[in-house]
Amino acid sequence: MAQKAKAKSQVKAFSTPRKSLGDLDADAAAALISAAADIALILDEGGVIRDVAFSNEELSGEFAAHASWLGQPWIETVAKDSRPKVEELTRRSGTTGGRWRHVNQVSTEGASVPILYSTAPVGKAGRIVVFGRDLRPVSRLQQRLVEVQQSMERDYSRLRQAETRYRLLFQMSPDPVLVLDGTTQRVTEANPAAMRLFGKDQRRSVGRPIAEAFSADSRAVVQSLLASVRAAGRGDDVTARLAEDNAEVTVSASTFRQEGTLLFLVRIAMPEATLVALPPDKSRLLKLVDAVPDAFVVTGPDGRIITANAAFIEMVEATSEEQVRSEPLDRWLGAQDVESEVLFGHLRNRGTVRLYASVLRGEHGARTEVEISAVTVMHGGKPCFGFAMRDVGPRVRPAVVGARPTRSVEQLTELIGRVPLKDLVREATDAIERLCIEAALELSGDNRASAAEMLGLSRQSLYVKLRRYGLGDLGAEPGEAG
Question: The domain at 169-275 falls in which architecture?
Answer without folding.
Answer: 2-Layer Sandwich (3.30)
